[in-house]
Amino acid sequence: MATTLDVNGRPLNVNSPPDTPLLWVLRDELGLTGTKYGCGIAQCGACTVLADGQPIRSCQAPVSALSGMKITTIEGLGGEHPVQQAWVKLDVPQCGYCQSGQIMSAVGLLAQNPNPDDAAIDAAMEGNICRCGAYQRIHAAIKDASAQPAAAK
Amino acid sequence: MNKPFKDIAAAPTRREALAVGATLVGGALLVGCSMPDALSAGSKVKPGAFGPFVKVDPDGAVTVVSKHIEFGQGNHAGLAAIVAEEMDADWDRVKVEQAPANAKLYGNTLMGGIQGTGGSSAIANSWTQLRTAGAAARAMFVQAAATKWAVPVAEVTVKDSVVAHPSGRKAGFGELVADAAKVTPPQAPALKDPKAFTLIGSDLVRRKDAQAKSTGTARYTQDVRLPNMLVAVVAHAPLFGGKVASFDAAEAEKVPGVVEIFKIPTGVAVVAQSTYAAKTARDALKVTWDDSKAEKRGTTQILAQYRDLASGKTAAPEKNGWKSFEAHGDTAKATEGGEALEIAYDFPYLAHATMEPMNCVAMIGKGPPRLVFGSQSPTLDQLNTARIAPALPGSVEIETLFAGGSFGRRTNFQSDYVAECVHIAKKVGAGRPVKLVWTREDDMRAGYFRPIVHHALRITLDKDGFPATWRHRVVTQSIMKGAPPGAPTGGDYDETGVEGAKGSPYLKATPVVDAQVLQPDVGVPVLWWRSVGATHTAYVMEHTVDQLAKRAGKDPVEYRRALYGKAGATRHLGVLNLAAEKAGWSEPAPEGWTRGVAVHESFGSVVAQVAEVKLENGVPKVGRVVTAIDCGVAISPDQIAAQMEGGTCYGLSAAMFGQITLTDGKVDQANFDTYRVLRHSEAPKVETYIVTSANPPSGVGEPGTPVIGPAVANALLTLTGQPTFSQPFVKS
Q1: Which CATH number is associated with domain A78-146?
Q2: Does residue B136 register a pLDDT over 60?
Q3: What's B121's domain CATH number?
Q4: What pLDDT does A12 receive?
């Protein structure tokens, strides 16, 4: 049974079984591989996407529950988003595998709170693990992007 | 894109077959055929006009071919900068490409010539090689221009990929590339005086992959999608050494998308059309395991055995008994007499827990075996694939991708997850691509852990408060035990278990030392884990020294200075002084914070850290961490800082929370809910200062990891008066 999804502004019919987590629909069926598998139990944040602007862990979201919601993945940011620019400016990524999820959480944060303080950044980013330990630069890049007016778009 | 398959490889020549036969039994027994020749037999990889490491496009863009995988440590930026510096290439138009597998062209000169990345050696082993490659390419462009313009070579200059002559003639690399490619490469081109470097050591050296990794376009194994590709998930034995007795696939086969379910040496493989189908079917499998030869002990029992061996309560086995790793003076005096500090430390198994769990794509059965994945040691992966396929090792083609972290996990002597994928792809056959996906739980429970380690020490002080005698016993599994015959293992014991204690300036400064190691067999696979022996020796040596300083009533920094003076450890002294100065050691710590210091040498580099620590609800909180490193010539200061920041988090994560335990042989942890790692709010603020040095570059990927643990423990010692004798600090 097909589910209709709105991914990055495009309406899409997906054929995966309705209980399939969004993560695997994005990656295996739609070929949007920027969103990563890290743990499968919403503990690491590598699979973070936005659903109606809110960060969600796509590994725990059955695709049937997302019908009618606007899904934004890393590919949907366009590559020049102020958060992405800050990431590049500060050479944030190391292995890079967690960074799509980190960026989506940061974008979600800045949409809610354009000028987050340290505690707000800590709280919003606590669910995103980076085993390379790029946290310090992630934190700095969010601050850098928060100074850009367009970050909240 | 992936190349289409070629026809089935021609049968190996007799000499190639002999070479491979000898290689496969593991010895350097070849007659008239060097090891790199043997390892690359059957390879179709050929260097281009500018050698194996440099390519120049018709538009003048320079591509540096990296023989090392990029899994976060920033080596691609550093390697490219070395070539660009000597070549005087325009840094903005330099790209990096991952080398194919070929030990002869891309062997690691610090790893006996096999192609591999590890031991923080990527920059160190490439330094002269890539300077020479860049300088040779530059000389070829200069020669081409001189010939074309009929001017003396000495009058031709190069800057930012533009070749020029004082007469006003100039041409870009692109215009000259056809002529330059015909010039015979010089064997020993002149290298720059390091004082003339303009790129190396500057903040211009930035990552080349930050854009791709910030847009989701960087390609990892997990992302490989090939026509007709299948996905495999494997049911593994719950106990190490367990085997499949029987399995019932009736329920699993009902899952839509399942293609095939079969037994492989490491378990039962489920092959399906999609990852989720394969995983769902795997979860529905019923497997009966034969545990007759499995390791059934828990970590409590293993650690108790280690303690009893170290204390002498249990005698060491006759074979594989105690081995001395450092001894001087009248060692009998180390065992008794004097007022001694007698202490012991315990370290748990640790998982690497890379963000991207282990995975691999293999195509077997049509044309040469082909692998697409983040290969850390292509040569080992070729050898292990060749055994299974079977094929000539050199004929195994590997396309190496970015890897989502490794920290040592992606290479071992068995190529464990690679071999598993090759077995499955061989059964599927016909060269059909198979992607093996490990779930987080598979990855966490697969072993290849940092070993459990127990240290027992007995130290007496002289009248001035400095160590007079030092008895040291280490019990830990050997990491190198699984090495093929002929591989360097450090003699009659595995040196990786004691490196950092062995060679410590504190032992050098002590008149009587009796240090021994025992390496018992345990049925749990163990492996190098970012900074290897230093993960525990740095902690033991540095935390012990603070306890000795306390006992002697001396300041920990002053105490170290005196010991480094006795040992002649000038580089240790240099980083200690730099860190102490930048941290303001002579001034009181900020209100509410307590400082701790630690210093350790690993992989040729010496790191000192001063950490500011406080206790929040009984849990250590680490704030500012001042880091000083002596790593020889600093190629990319910003990437060195990134490695100090990241390495500190990795080491702190282990010291605070890291622990794999076994109950009745079964791993208790499964995912990040039970294997706690450092999170965003817990990351310290690391400041990095680099000692100016003219020495060749040494490692930075690992040396930042082992120092934070003891620095924090030393702060806690000052704060609470209590030493910390086991990790993790926070018991779950």
Answers
A1: 1.10.150.120
A2: yes
A3: 3.30.365.10
A4: 92
DSSP assigned state of B291: -
Q: Are B209 and B218 in contact (CB under 8 A)?
A: yes
Residue to mutate among B92, B202, B355, with most A CBs inside 10 A, is B355
> Are B581 and B604 found together in one domain?
yes
Q: Does residue B576 sit in the same domain as residue B607?
A: yes
User: Contact at 8 Å (CB) between B598 and B159?
Assistant: no
Is B264 found in the same domain as B392?
yes
**From the CA of B332, how many Å to the nearest CA of chain A?**
45
pLDDT tops 50 at residue B295: yes
* Assigned token pair, B390: 């079977």
Judged on CB neighbours under 10 Å (0-12, 13-18, 19+), A49 is: buried
Q: Complex ipTM, two decimals? A: 0.97
Choose, out of B221, B442, B680, the residue to mutate when testing the contact with A (most A CBs < 10 Å).
Answer: B680
CB contact under 8 A, B404 and A95: yes
- Contact between B657 and B677 (Cβ < 8 Å): yes
Residue contact B218–A96, C-beta within 8 A: yes
Contact A131 B73 (CB under 8 A): no
Hey, are the CB atoms on B216 and A75 less than 8 Å from each other? yes
Whether pTM exceeds 0.90: yes
A36 at interface of B, judged by CB pairs closer than 8 A: yes
Same domain, B249 and B202: no
Nearest Cα neighbor of A112 from A50, A47, A34 is A50
**In which residue are the tokens 């890897």 written?**
B403
For residue B563, the enclosing domain spans: 301-349+449-720
Please judge whether A36 and B206 are an interchain contact, meaning their C-beta atoms are less than 8 angstroms apart.
no
**Using one digit for the tens of pLDDT, what is the confidence trace for B220-229?**
999 999 999 9
Q: What is the mean pLDDT of residues B667-695?
A: 98
Percent of chain B exceeding pLDDT 90 equals 90
- On whether both B598 and B509 belong to a single domain, the answer is yes
Residue A108 token pair: 């979600």
Is the pLDDT at B604 greater than 60? The verdict is yes
Which residue pairs from B583-588 have beta carbons closer than 8 angstroms and sit at least 24 positions apart in sequence?
Answer: B583/B610, B583/B624, B583/B626, B585/B557, B585/B610
Structure tokens at B549: 């300083």
- For residues A151 and B665, give the distance between their C-alpha atoms in angstroms, rounded to a whole number: 51
Distance of CA A139 to the CA centre of its chain: 16
Q: Is residue B5 part of a domain?
A: no
pLDDT of residue B490: 57
Sorted by where each begins, the domain ranges of chain A are 3-76, 78-146
My answer on whether omega of the bond before B696 falls inside 30° of 0, hence cis, is no
User: Is A3-76 a domain of CATH 3.40.50.1970?
Assistant: no
The answer to whether residues B632 and B523 belong to one domain is: yes
Please name the member of B353, B439, B650 whose beta carbon is closest to the beta carbon of A40.
Answer: B439
Report chain B's mean pLDDT, rounded to a whole number. 94
Q: Is residue B36 part of a domain?
A: no
Number of structural domains found in chain B: 3
- Rounded-to-integer distance, Cα B224 and Cα B499, Å: 39
Q: Identify whether residues B344 and B428 lie together within a single domain.
A: no
Angle made by CA atoms A140, A146, A152, in degrees to the nearest 5 = 140
Interface of A with B in 79-118 (CB under 8 A): 79, 84, 87-88, 91-100, 103
| pLDDT single digits (tens) B141-175 | 999 999 999 999 999 999 999 999 999 999 999 99
Is B593 inside a domain boundary?
Answer: yes
In a domain, residue B29? The reply is no
Q: Are B422 and B52 in contact (CB under 8 A)?
A: no
One domain, residues B576 and B465: yes
Question: Which residue's structure tokens are 């019919």?
Answer: A13
